[in-house]
Every structure is written in C-alpha cells, then in structure tokens.
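Dear Dr. H.,

I hope your travels went smoothly. While you were away I took the liberty of generating a structure for the chain from your last submission, since the lab meeting agenda had it listed for discussion. I wanted you to have the full record in hand beforehand rather than looking at slides cold. The sequence, exactly as received, is reproduced here:
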Amino acid sequence: MSTQESYDIPTSEPAGSRQPHVLRGVSKNATGEYDTNLLLYKGKGDFLRGFVNVNNEKIDVIVHINQRKDSPEKFLTVTKKEGEEWRQIGFGNALTHRKDDKPVYNDEIIFNIKGVTLNARVAKSIDPALHQQLGFTESIKPRPERSDSEKPNLQEQISFLATQLQAHTSSKALGQIKIEFKEKFGVDLPAISAEPAPKPGSTPKSKG
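The corresponding predicted structure, in token form, is as follows:
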C-alpha cells in the first residue's frame, strides 16, 4: 500500500459527531462484563476505520473492502500502520451461510486478526448499500427475542452505562450512547433525570 495514504482513525467518536458505527464486536471479560473488542466507522472511501482489541492490545486499523477476482464475493482486509507502511494483520468475511444449518441473520462478520477470531455485528441503522458492499447478499433478518434468562440483568446495564459515560463524557453524544444501549440490550435507554436523587431517609421536596 502506498506510504502516501493517510487516514483519520479516531479511537472514539469525535466531539459533537453523531456518526453511528458500522461494526461493533464485544467479548466477555473475566468479571463477566462485556468489553468492546472491535469498533469501526465509515471512512471517506471504500474503507472503514477504528480499532480492534486483540490479546489486550488495542490497535488502530484501516479495513479495506475488496472484491474477489474469481467471484462476486466481497471480503475485508484489516491493516495497521507500521512505520510508514500499512501492513495486513487480518481479514474478515460476511457470514452468509452456516455448515451447521443454523439461522443466518445477515448482520455478522467474522474476523481473523493475528490468529484470533472476532465476531462483529453491523449496526441496525446501516445504509443498505454499505451493507451490500460488506459482502451480504440479502437484507438483515430480525433476530428472535431473547428469553428472560438470556437477557442482561440490571447490573450489566449499569456497568455498560458507567463504562460508556466514563470513556465518552467529553467525546460522545448522548444520542450515540442511546443507540448503542438499544443495540446491546434490545430496549430503550430509560430517561435520566437531571435532578439528584434524594439522600436516604430524606423527604423529597414538594413541587407544589
């Protein structure tokens, strides 16, 4: 790849921006909570930019969308900058069929980065043209509702919010946090009151 090419690779969404992510992957950590291990945004061209987290190493990457020479299938190549060169460290493919005949929802891309497999899902709000560009041949199919036992508990939701607010208070709009909360938990983010909660044992002030 040309050493003259330069890319803007934010590790979080720029201040004031409302641009949604294109792909996001998560993994469960040792405490049972979920961490983002892949987050990609649309670049100004046929590429995505963002970061991956592999073996506890956060890597800024550019992901190129490629066309196979011998078929209409698309595939992705993941590159990182080393010195003045961009070198490939992995690849990704849209999941359009399964050998075990399990359902395919046309919203998942499987990456292999430095020998580590990362599963990422496309944003529900993705542009249909970009969705097709990523290698999907059919539109996204709705996933079935999770049972109560599979749904994340309140502690997981609180942990997710705390992590997002701590990391993005100055760089991410509340609207984007609401979008990611809905995609992760399948429910709308509850309204947050600007008034401080009353202290234990105190009597709430009357608004009369």
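Two observations you may find useful: Residues 72 and 135 are 9 Å apart (CA to CA). The chain has three helices and eight strands.

With kind regards,
E. W.
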